[in-house]
Amino acid sequence: MLSSNPMAALFGKSPFKPLHQHMRIVIECVEEVQPLFQALIDDDQEQLEERKNAIFVKEREADSMRNEVCDRLPRSRLLAVDRQDLLELLAMQDAIADAAQDIAGLLVERKMEVHAGMAEPLMRLVCRCIDTCRQAQAIIERLQELQETGFRGREASGVDDLVVELGNMESDTDVMGMALARALFSQEDNLKPVSVMFWYQLIQWVGNLADYAEKVGDRVRLLVAR
Questions:
Q1: DSSP code, position 189
Q2: DSSP states along 123-158
Q3: Nearest to 204 by CA among 181, 226, 182, 225
Q4: Nearest to 89 by CA among 138, 16, 151
Q5: CB–CB of 221/88 below 8 Å?
Q6: Domains of the chain
Q7: Is residue 94 a contact partner of residue 63, using CB atoms and an 8 Å limit?
Q8: Pfam families in the record, alphabetically (predicted)?
Q9: Is the CB of residue 131 less than 8 Å from the CB of residue 139?
Q10: How many other CB atoms are found less than 10 A from the CB of residue 24?
Q11: In 3D, which of 155, 140, 166, 147 has the Cα closest to residue 220?
Q12: What share of the chain is helix, strand, coil (3-state, %, to 5)?
Protein backbone atom coordinates (compact mmCIF):
# COMPACT_ATOMS: atom_id res chain seq x y z
CA MET A 1 0.00 0.00 0.00
CA LEU A 2 1.28 3.48 -0.86
CA SER A 3 1.89 5.76 2.09
CA SER A 4 -0.49 8.69 2.54
CA ASN A 5 2.24 10.65 4.30
CA PRO A 6 3.70 13.22 1.87
CA MET A 7 7.07 13.26 3.62
CA ALA A 8 7.31 9.50 3.42
CA ALA A 9 6.48 9.70 -0.27
CA LEU A 10 9.27 12.22 -0.77
CA PHE A 11 11.84 10.07 1.00
CA GLY A 12 10.68 7.06 -0.96
CA LYS A 13 11.85 8.74 -4.13
CA SER A 14 15.05 10.44 -3.00
CA PRO A 15 16.68 11.76 0.18
CA PHE A 16 17.12 15.05 -1.69
CA LYS A 17 13.45 15.75 -2.39
CA PRO A 18 12.71 17.05 1.12
CA LEU A 19 15.77 19.33 0.88
CA HIS A 20 14.35 20.74 -2.37
CA GLN A 21 11.04 21.40 -0.65
CA HIS A 22 12.67 22.98 2.39
CA MET A 23 14.84 25.26 0.24
CA ARG A 24 11.79 26.45 -1.70
CA ILE A 25 10.17 27.53 1.57
CA VAL A 26 13.41 29.27 2.60
CA ILE A 27 13.46 31.22 -0.67
CA GLU A 28 9.81 32.22 -0.22
CA CYS A 29 10.88 33.63 3.14
CA VAL A 30 13.87 35.48 1.69
CA GLU A 31 11.81 36.93 -1.18
CA GLU A 32 9.93 38.98 1.42
CA VAL A 33 13.09 40.82 2.47
CA GLN A 34 13.15 43.14 -0.55
CA PRO A 35 9.60 44.49 -0.02
CA LEU A 36 10.41 44.69 3.70
CA PHE A 37 13.25 47.12 3.00
CA GLN A 38 11.18 49.00 0.45
CA ALA A 39 8.59 49.56 3.17
CA LEU A 40 11.37 50.81 5.44
CA ILE A 41 12.58 53.28 2.80
CA ASP A 42 8.99 54.41 2.12
CA ASP A 43 8.36 54.74 5.88
CA ASP A 44 5.29 52.53 5.44
CA GLN A 45 4.83 51.01 8.89
CA GLU A 46 1.76 49.01 7.93
CA GLN A 47 3.53 47.34 5.03
CA LEU A 48 6.64 46.83 7.17
CA GLU A 49 4.60 44.93 9.75
CA GLU A 50 2.89 42.89 7.03
CA ARG A 51 6.18 41.86 5.43
CA LYS A 52 7.63 41.02 8.85
CA ASN A 53 4.67 38.77 9.60
CA ALA A 54 5.06 37.01 6.25
CA ILE A 55 8.74 36.36 6.96
CA PHE A 56 7.98 34.99 10.42
CA VAL A 57 5.30 32.67 9.02
CA LYS A 58 7.66 31.30 6.38
CA GLU A 59 10.51 30.93 8.84
CA ARG A 60 8.30 28.87 11.15
CA GLU A 61 7.21 26.78 8.18
CA ALA A 62 10.87 26.17 7.29
CA ASP A 63 11.64 25.23 10.90
CA SER A 64 8.73 22.81 10.99
CA MET A 65 9.82 21.09 7.82
CA ARG A 66 13.45 20.98 8.97
CA ASN A 67 12.37 19.21 12.16
CA GLU A 68 10.26 16.73 10.23
CA VAL A 69 13.09 16.00 7.81
CA CYS A 70 15.47 15.44 10.75
CA ASP A 71 13.00 13.04 12.36
CA ARG A 72 12.24 11.12 9.19
CA LEU A 73 15.60 11.02 7.44
CA PRO A 74 16.28 7.27 7.23
CA ARG A 75 18.85 5.79 9.59
CA SER A 76 18.55 2.14 8.70
CA ARG A 77 18.97 2.09 4.93
CA LEU A 78 21.85 3.04 2.70
CA LEU A 79 21.58 6.60 1.40
CA ALA A 80 23.33 8.08 -1.61
CA VAL A 81 25.24 10.36 0.76
CA ASP A 82 26.06 10.39 4.45
CA ARG A 83 23.09 11.24 6.66
CA GLN A 84 25.13 13.78 8.64
CA ASP A 85 26.10 15.59 5.44
CA LEU A 86 22.42 15.96 4.56
CA LEU A 87 21.60 17.28 8.03
CA GLU A 88 24.40 19.84 7.85
CA LEU A 89 23.20 20.97 4.43
CA LEU A 90 19.68 21.29 5.81
CA ALA A 91 20.98 23.37 8.73
CA MET A 92 22.71 25.80 6.35
CA GLN A 93 19.52 26.19 4.35
CA ASP A 94 17.55 26.87 7.51
CA ALA A 95 20.09 29.46 8.64
CA ILE A 96 19.14 31.59 5.62
CA ALA A 97 15.54 31.82 6.81
CA ASP A 98 16.75 32.51 10.35
CA ALA A 99 18.79 35.45 9.04
CA ALA A 100 15.73 36.85 7.27
CA GLN A 101 13.77 36.59 10.51
CA ASP A 102 16.53 38.41 12.43
CA ILE A 103 16.40 41.26 9.91
CA ALA A 104 12.62 41.54 10.03
CA GLY A 105 12.53 41.45 13.81
CA LEU A 106 15.04 44.28 14.15
CA LEU A 107 13.30 46.49 11.60
CA VAL A 108 9.98 46.19 13.43
CA GLU A 109 11.25 46.27 17.02
CA ARG A 110 13.38 49.37 16.50
CA LYS A 111 12.55 52.46 14.46
CA MET A 112 15.25 52.57 11.77
CA GLU A 113 15.73 55.71 9.71
CA VAL A 114 17.27 55.38 6.24
CA HIS A 115 19.74 58.23 6.09
CA ALA A 116 20.59 60.35 3.07
CA GLY A 117 22.44 58.46 0.36
CA MET A 118 21.86 55.03 1.91
CA ALA A 119 18.62 53.92 0.22
CA GLU A 120 20.07 53.03 -3.18
CA PRO A 121 23.18 51.13 -2.02
CA LEU A 122 21.09 49.42 0.65
CA MET A 123 18.60 48.09 -1.88
CA ARG A 124 21.40 47.00 -4.21
CA LEU A 125 22.92 45.00 -1.37
CA VAL A 126 19.57 43.47 -0.41
CA CYS A 127 18.79 42.46 -4.00
CA ARG A 128 22.25 40.98 -4.57
CA CYS A 129 21.99 38.94 -1.38
CA ILE A 130 18.59 37.62 -2.47
CA ASP A 131 20.03 36.72 -5.88
CA THR A 132 22.80 34.83 -4.08
CA CYS A 133 20.17 32.82 -2.18
CA ARG A 134 18.42 32.03 -5.46
CA GLN A 135 21.71 30.77 -6.84
CA ALA A 136 22.02 28.43 -3.84
CA GLN A 137 18.51 27.18 -4.57
CA ALA A 138 19.47 26.47 -8.19
CA ILE A 139 22.31 24.30 -6.89
CA ILE A 140 20.04 22.40 -4.48
CA GLU A 141 17.61 21.73 -7.34
CA ARG A 142 20.41 19.90 -9.16
CA LEU A 143 21.05 17.36 -6.38
CA GLN A 144 18.71 14.75 -7.84
CA GLU A 145 20.48 14.87 -11.20
CA LEU A 146 23.80 14.66 -9.39
CA GLN A 147 22.69 11.49 -7.62
CA GLU A 148 21.50 9.94 -10.86
CA THR A 149 24.93 10.50 -12.46
CA GLY A 150 26.83 9.23 -9.44
CA PHE A 151 28.09 12.74 -8.58
CA ARG A 152 30.36 12.63 -11.63
CA GLY A 153 30.60 13.78 -15.21
CA ARG A 154 29.04 16.77 -16.92
CA GLU A 155 26.37 17.26 -14.27
CA ALA A 156 28.97 17.45 -11.50
CA SER A 157 31.02 19.94 -13.54
CA GLY A 158 27.93 22.05 -14.14
CA VAL A 159 27.14 22.15 -10.43
CA ASP A 160 30.73 23.07 -9.65
CA ASP A 161 30.43 26.01 -12.04
CA LEU A 162 27.29 27.14 -10.22
CA VAL A 163 29.11 26.92 -6.87
CA VAL A 164 31.99 29.01 -8.22
CA GLU A 165 29.54 31.65 -9.45
CA LEU A 166 27.82 31.54 -6.06
CA GLY A 167 31.15 32.36 -4.41
CA ASN A 168 31.65 35.29 -6.77
CA MET A 169 28.19 36.60 -5.96
CA GLU A 170 28.84 36.36 -2.23
CA SER A 171 32.10 38.27 -2.73
CA ASP A 172 30.08 41.00 -4.45
CA THR A 173 27.89 41.30 -1.38
CA ASP A 174 30.96 41.62 0.85
CA VAL A 175 32.20 44.56 -1.23
CA MET A 176 28.76 46.16 -1.30
CA GLY A 177 28.32 45.69 2.44
CA MET A 178 31.68 47.33 3.20
CA ALA A 179 30.82 50.26 0.91
CA LEU A 180 27.50 50.72 2.69
CA ALA A 181 29.22 50.57 6.07
CA ARG A 182 31.66 53.27 4.95
CA ALA A 183 28.74 55.44 3.84
CA LEU A 184 27.20 54.94 7.28
CA PHE A 185 30.40 55.76 9.13
CA SER A 186 30.91 58.90 7.05
CA GLN A 187 27.76 60.24 8.73
CA GLU A 188 28.42 58.97 12.23
CA ASP A 189 29.17 62.47 13.58
CA ASN A 190 25.56 63.38 12.78
CA LEU A 191 24.04 60.17 14.14
CA LYS A 192 23.49 58.78 17.60
CA PRO A 193 26.05 56.08 18.42
CA VAL A 194 23.30 53.55 19.13
CA SER A 195 21.81 54.21 15.67
CA VAL A 196 25.18 53.56 14.04
CA MET A 197 25.50 50.35 16.03
CA PHE A 198 22.10 49.02 14.97
CA TRP A 199 22.64 49.94 11.34
CA TYR A 200 26.00 48.20 11.32
CA GLN A 201 24.36 45.11 12.82
CA LEU A 202 21.63 45.25 10.18
CA ILE A 203 24.14 45.47 7.33
CA GLN A 204 25.92 42.41 8.74
CA TRP A 205 22.65 40.46 8.97
CA VAL A 206 21.75 41.28 5.38
CA GLY A 207 25.17 40.00 4.38
CA ASN A 208 24.49 36.81 6.36
CA LEU A 209 21.85 35.87 3.78
CA ALA A 210 24.58 35.58 1.17
CA ASP A 211 27.08 34.05 3.61
CA TYR A 212 24.76 31.16 4.46
CA ALA A 213 23.82 30.75 0.80
CA GLU A 214 27.51 30.34 -0.02
CA LYS A 215 27.83 27.75 2.76
CA VAL A 216 25.01 25.78 1.14
CA GLY A 217 27.05 25.70 -2.06
CA ASP A 218 30.17 24.67 -0.16
CA ARG A 219 28.29 21.76 1.42
CA VAL A 220 27.13 20.58 -1.97
CA ARG A 221 30.68 20.78 -3.28
CA LEU A 222 31.76 18.53 -0.40
CA LEU A 223 29.06 16.02 -1.35
CA VAL A 224 30.38 15.94 -4.90
CA ALA A 225 33.99 15.59 -3.73
CA ARG A 226 33.14 12.57 -1.56
A1: G
A2: HHHHHHHHHHHHHHHHHHTTHHHHHHTTT-HHHHHH
A3: 181
A4: 16
A5: no
A6: 14-225 (1.20.58.220)
A7: yes
A8: PhoU_div (PF01865)
A9: no
A10: 15
A11: 140
A12: 80, 0, 20
* Average pLDDT taken over every residue of the chain: 87
Identify the band that residue 193 occupies on the pLDDT scale cut at 50, 70 and 90: confident
What CA–CA distance (Å, rounded) separates 113 from 194? 12
Phi, psi of 54 (to 5 degrees): -65, -40
pLDDT level of residue 75 (50, 70, 90 thresholds)? low
pLDDT-wise least confident of 46-55, 91-100, 185-194: 185-194
| 128-171 confidence digits (pLDDT tens) | 999 999 999 999 998 877 776 666 777 778 888 999 999 999 99
Separation of CA 40 from chain center: 21
What is the rounded CA–CA span in Å between residue 143 and residue 220?
8
Taking CA atoms, 189 is separated from 27, 114, 170, 184, in Å, by: 38, 16, 31, 10
For the packed helices 45-72 and 17-30, what is the interaxial angle rounded to 10 degrees? 170
Q: Which residues contact 194 (CB under 8 A, 6 or more apart)?
A: none
Cα separation values, 5 from 2, 12, 21, 63, 92, Å: 9, 11, 15, 19, 26
- Average pLDDT of the residues in 189-199: 85
